[in-house]
Design a protein that fits this description.
Helix content is 39%, strand content 22%. By secondary structure, the protein is of the alpha+beta class.
Length: 341
């Protein structure tokens, strides 16, 4: 599925709930179709934005043998190494420094990205120049674990956006056949990654642009279990998105699949597993004033062939809809609003 990179960027900003940061790069002005170029420009513009505000600093733990007492003295180490001879003592102390984890991750990501095959020369040069400004920040080897260790606060939340870009780059940069270089994987073709992005995008879009209360919702089976063992075997049901107002309720299940239909004995039909899931939601809806009129929707992305089918069952409206991601963003915006009008 080939989605224009401008739209991919907007999808990510919505999925990450980073709408205030999306203007860090004017994607409409980008004529490249390379995701590596896109994310390089995001990092360049974002880091320049940080420069204007000043890089973040934090207290970093240090261990040093010093003749001036600082922090906590490590007595066992001092005795073991006969500190009386050296005239110095080993001390642990915290020092205010730019060498914090989020700056180290940002530097490491930019350095890795400069070695990406096919990266535009201006992007490579821009990243290299920025890396020179990080000369006092130690190099680090990136890993999945590191991204989970970053601790941010309200005053440095802009880093959260850049670190999400860094993590995406880390997960999708593959070692190439040419030594010392990488190639950027087209993560749009990774259905698992894009399913999360698509669902997050739709959820945030409706939360921001409509008056509905938007959240995932647990739906509990109405089956009566014979005992606790049987009860524990029932799988959890949770909607992707439940839109609720005082008078309406719409349950949307987002399905990032190349096609909304399947071939069955040469006939084109809707995907049965998806219909069973929606039907399970309907049969087990909680009893409240909106249950009888609750609407159901299966929402698929599409590039060219729209699909629209509507059914009713026990008073519920069931809609099968697609949203074309290969069109101007304003059209995507209007089409999504029309789906719940």
């Amino acid at each position: 599925m080939n989605i224009p990179i401008q739209n991919i960027y907007y999808l990510l900003c919505y999925a990450w709930d980073k709408l205030a940061e999306r203007d860090v790069v004017a994607v409409e002005a980008i004529d490249s179709t390379s995701l590596a170029d896109l994310f390089a420009r995001v990092l360049i513009n974002g880091t320049n934005h940080l420069l204007k505000r000043g890089f973040d600093r934090g207290y970093v733990s240090q261990h040093e043998w010093t003749g001036r007492l600082r922090g906590r003295i490590c007595f066992q180490e001092a005795i073991a190494r006969n500190a009386t001879v050296t005239g110095r003592l080993p001390c642990d102390f915290d020092e205010l420094s730019y060498n914090v984890l989020h700056n180290r991750i940002l530097k490491a990501t930019m350095r890795r990205l400069t070695r990406t095959q096919g990266l535009a020369a201006e992007c490579s040069e821009g990243l290299t120049q920025l890396c020179r400004l990080f000369s006092d920040i130690q190099d680090i080897e990136l890993s999945n674990r590191l991204f989970g260790q970053v601790q941010l606060h309200r005053n440095n939340q802009f880093y959260d956006f850049l670190l999400k870009v860094c993590e995406l780059i880390y997960r999708n940069l593959l070692v190439s056949e040419k030594p010392g270089t990488s190639k950027f994987m087209d993560f749009v073709q990774d259905k698992r990654q894009m399913a999360v992005v698509f669902e997050g995008f739709v959820r945030t879009f409706y939360r921001v642009h409509t008056d509905f209360r938007v959240r995932p919702e647990d739906i509990y089976w109405r089956w009566i279990a014979a005992d606790q063992v049987a009860a524990g075997l029932l799988p959890k049901m949770q909607t992707d998105i439940s839109l609720t107002s005082n008078t309406r309720k719409i349950i949307i299940d987002c399905k990032f699949t190349p096609e909304a239909t399947q071939k069955h004995y040469e006939a084109e039909t809707l995907r049965s597993a998806h219909l069973y899931q929606i039907n399970a939601y309907m049969d087990n809806l909680p009893e409240d004033q909106l249950t009888d009129t609750c609407q159901m929707m299966l929402l698929y992305p599409t590039m060219d062939s729209p699909l629209s089918a509507t059914f009713t069952h026990k008073g519920h409206k069931i809609s099968i809809r697609t949203i074309n991601l290969n069109q101007p963003w304003q059209s995507i915006h209007q089409d999504l609003l029309a789906l719940v009008a």
